[in-house]
Amino acid sequence: MIEIATSSTTTTLVVAGDLDLAERDQFPEVTARVVGLRRQLLVIDMCRVTFMDSTGAAFLISLADAGRRRGGATVLRGAADRDLFVLEICGALELFRIDADHRCEIEADAQQGSPTGTPAPV
């Protein structure tokens, strides 16, 4: 699932679940909506991504590339090391700014000893 939120300067994508071949049918529509918004900053929240393959990486790369061509920037927030590794293997990690300070709600729950470990609604 991919949700889109906007402010006057930022588009935020919140991705939950798998970002892979099985989800590729929604990528063109999401890309068109994000590019059409023409915001300078794209933040991709990956806190709830459970798996990403090269198809998902290609989707993220296309979003970052479109923003870069307009002079914008793309930030990855909450990306797991495994997801960063996929982007690095694709040779595209330099297209993204990595928000290393962000702590996902899921991580915060785990650190606080939440018995359910369930994420808070977005």
Account of the 3D structure:
- This protein is α/β, with parallel strands linked by helices and about 120 residues long.
- The protein contains four helices and five strands.
- It has helices at about 25-35, 55-70, 80-90, 105-110, and strands at about 1-5, 10-20, 40-50, 75, 95-100.
- The protein has a five-stranded mixed beta sheet.
- The protein is globular, with a radius of gyration of 14 Å.
- How much beta, percentage-wise? 25-35%
Which CATH architecture is right? 2-Layer Sandwich
* Low-confidence spans: 108-122
Total DSSP helices:
4
Distance between the termini: 12 Å
CATH homologous superfamily identity: STAS domain
Q: What keyword list fits this structure?
A:
4 helices, alpha/beta, 122 residues, Transcription Regulator spoIIAA, 35% helix, five-stranded mixed beta sheet
